[in-house]
Amino acid sequence: MHQPPSDTRAGSTPMREHRRRGAGRRRPSGDGRRPLEKLVNGKHGPKNRRTLVKAFHTAPERLTAYISPLGWAVGSLGIVCLAVFPVLGWHELLVCGTIALTMCLAGVIMTLGNTRFNASLKLSDERITVGDMVSVSVSIDNPSRTPTVSADGDLPMGEVHERFRITALTPGKSQQRNVEFRATARAVLPVGPLRICKGDPFGLIRHERSLSDAIKVYIHPRTVRLNTLDSGRFRDLEGGPSGQVVDDDLDFYGLREYRPGDDIRNIHWLSSAKTGTMMVRQYEATKRTDTSITLGVDPIDYRNENEFELAVSLAASIGAQCLLQDRPLKAQASTQECSPHTATEFLDWTSSIEPDLDENANLAITTLKNSPNASFYFFVIGSATNLARIRRVASALPKASVCIMLKASIGQESLIRQYDGFTMATVPTLDDLPLVMEALK
């Protein structure tokens, strides 16, 4: 009987040959792809690839954030000492390397723990005046299901940092802390963000995280309340009603009986014919009260910092009074410009004014660029400002406008002088401003 040729080796059986061919093979599971290949090329492959790339790129930044420069130096020193020890055989290197790496390991262990705090900041008032007290309420709670570890809190308030200890909190518990400070200078002061810091006492490993956003505190300059400002340009088409009834203007108000001496051109003949009595027109005076305030901020023009702050307070007081009377206002200080609608908005702007050595010496240029058609121009300057420079500024203004120069000059007497084209008033203190403004009427 004919037998088919066989490929099996001598001494092997078909069953053994089948097992030998199947040896080393794994039965594919699922779609037959390896776990890493499935992670990158699977259904959510693009998203996973972006996550891996982001983690790869942010790894150095995270290491730098957790390990301080001193930690990098100590860790590198420990590795170098242990690497050189087998070559040189110095036991001092072994001891130094062991201690260095032990310190790093201890630092890592001390930073472990749950620090998932939530925090919020609340201010007693976001707008205060120089000299006022403000209170910052810090609320910290544990929203997680596990207890937190203790950590250090750091609350920056401008250049000052308030540091305090945050105790360990069980789930759902909170901790309150109040921080008070006095506003000693005009500024826009950032409070926060609150940061937690956890690390080792050697300063090798640190863990910092921001828990809240920063809040701005506007510290306004001191101001003084002024009486009503009545100055303005009468009989102006762009003016508004002033409440004053006159015999000749643009805005018709009503009629009255004729009195001897009245201008015959103001007689309303139709009404006179109806009533049988001579009737004369009356008008409500229109007055344009657009006001411009320019503050000189060149520190050379001021003898000291207190005089500069006095100038800011003078400008802030006049501007706030204009806005309280609904007078249109535009203000400028060097390159900073403001067209506020409320007194609060204007005072917020004055909180950020700083001296500027690069200010244009001719204040009229920046003034006319921002407010070319104002009816009233205020310039607040320092005591060291040259009179010739003041004359040049006043001569560049519109002839129909009113120009007043307020010179902040601590230690001198209040004085008002009338010059050709402008009036200059010397104001030694903020309390003298109301009297000066009354005299200027």
Automatic annotation (TrEMBL):
<keyword id="KW-1133">Transmembrane helix</keyword>
<keyword id="KW-0472">Membrane</keyword>
<protein>
    <recommendedName>
        <fullName>DUF58 domain-containing protein</fullName>
    </recommendedName>
</protein>
<feature type="compositionally biased region" description="Polar residues">
    <location>
        <begin position="1"/>
        <end position="11"/>
    </location>
</feature>
<feature type="compositionally biased region" description="Basic and acidic residues">
    <location>
        <begin position="28"/>
        <end position="37"/>
    </location>
</feature>
<keyword id="KW-0812">Transmembrane</keyword>
<feature type="region of interest" description="Disordered">
    <location>
        <begin position="1"/>
        <end position="47"/>
    </location>
</feature>
<feature type="transmembrane region" description="Helical">
    <location>
        <begin position="91"/>
        <end position="112"/>
    </location>
</feature>
<feature type="domain" description="DUF58">
    <location>
        <begin position="255"/>
        <end position="318"/>
    </location>
</feature>
<dbReference type="Pfam" id="PF01882">
    <property type="entry name" value="DUF58"/>
</dbReference>
<feature type="compositionally biased region" description="Basic residues">
    <location>
        <begin position="17"/>
        <end position="27"/>
    </location>
</feature>
<feature type="transmembrane region" description="Helical">
    <location>
        <begin position="63"/>
        <end position="85"/>
    </location>
</feature>
<dbReference type="InterPro" id="IPR002881">
    <property type="entry name" value="DUF58"/>
</dbReference>
